[in-house]
Amino acid sequence: MATEEDVRKICLGLPGVTERPSWGQPAWFAKTLMARIWEDGVVTVKTDEREALTAMEPDKFFWTPHHDRSPNLVLVHLTKIDVGELAELLQESYRIAGGPK
Known about the structure:
- The protein has a six-stranded antiparallel β-sheet, with helices on one face.
- It is α+β, with helices and mostly antiparallel strands.
- Helix content is 30%, strand content 29%.
- The chain starts with a helix and ends in a 5-residue tail after the last helix.
- It has helices at residues 4-12, 50-56, 83-96; strands spanning 18-22, 25-29, 33-39, 42-46, 61-62, 73-77.
- It has three helices and six strands; from the N terminus they run αββββαββα.
């Protein structure tokens, strides 16, 4: 089980990532937004595999109608993901958001 503090630690451990509020929630930016707390216990990340993730593990990964226009955003229930898998997702999100390759 991961926490918001795990998200923060992983994001801020990546080169050049900054934290600032976005829509009143903690968010982390590379060149663009890479992760944001959506609501308590849920983080938004960027991925190239949203359809596959949500099909394989819908209890862990999902999106709302708000995210329909952003096909690379997925919501993650932090209580359903371990820190290692979260770190992999955040590294992918960092790459998509323009972090150094």
